[in-house]
From TrEMBL:
Protein name: LIGO3 protein
Annotated InterPro entries: Ig-like_dom, Ig-like_dom_sf, Ig-like_fold, Ig_I-set, Ig_sub, Ig_sub2, Leu-rich_rpt, LRFN
Lipid bilayer topology: Single-pass membrane protein
UniProt keyword terms in alphabetical order: Disulfide bond, Glycoprotein, Immunoglobulin domain, Leucine-rich repeat, Membrane, Repeat, Signal, Transmembrane, Transmembrane helix
Cellular component terms (Gene Ontology): membrane
A matching Pfam family: LRR_8
Domain of life according to the entry: Eukaryota
Annotated source species: Mystacornis crossleyi
Listed transmembrane segments: 259-284
Occurrences of domain Ig-like (ranges): 128-217
Subcellular location field: Membrane
Amino acid sequence: LYNLLQLEIDNWPLLEEVSPTSFQGLNLTSLSITYTNITAVPAAALRNLVYLRYLNLSYNPISTVLKGSFKDLIRLQELHIVGALLRRKTLNFDGQQPMCSSPPEIQGNALRDFPDSVLFEYFTCQKPKIRDRKLQHVTAREGQSVSFLCRADGEPDPSIAWVSPQHRMITTRSTGRATVLPGGTLEIRFAQVQDSGTYICIASNAGGNDTYFATLTVKGRPADGAHHANRTLYLSDFNDTFHNDTQVFLKFTLDLKTILVSTAMGCITFLGVVLFCFLLLFVWSRGRGQHKNNFSVEYSFRKVDGPTTTTGQGGARKFNMKMI
């Protein structure tokens, strides 16, 4: 499964240990192991995931994090360990205690300033839950715009991201034809046939994540001339790397009625010429059988000098011949 990029292991109480070779050969960029019974960070198994960017080990009975547990994760950008058994007072932040950014009433306060009783009031997370899980299946024509809804509740407010059928992450910062609107809606402009497939909505926060699926089918344009005669071709933003806001389009004004009338006129003209030729051939063939060809041949004998032995010899003779 070298093409597998995201793996979620959730709500598996029987899982107590992750083998060091569990993820060998995988190129994961996101890994989530939540609500299991592992008691330590599976550092040996994580050592092979050099492309990992997101790691969630929340809601596991992990009591300690050994030094160097994440040293091989050179591309790691987010680490979530929520709801574990870690002791706050023993955590070492290299002398820089974390500060609270929300909610507003405790913003700017240091984590060490809160007693344990207060932590249970403020530092609570609610795993995201997508509201409407009704399957969305959209069928669209090539060139149309398509949108999928994804709403989720959670504490703190979950962030929404989508994964395309080509395993590309789509967020609010994505540019191109596909992007995520502020409310979590996936918008695909000028849909293409290659956009067809299953899209995955991922709602995530510090408490975990929830997923949802939507399916898109994009039908190509018909090959018949009637459909192509009256259409608008958009030449901008047909790929994810085109960012110019100018849209250039060409319009073809021929419609189906014009094409039918032109075709009918052409057929009538062609049939008229053919009928006229047949009429000429018919008249010519009828007249040929009644016409008679007459011609005459006139021959004159040359006069010969000398005695004449035959009366009329040397005179001219004429022959008339008639052919039918």
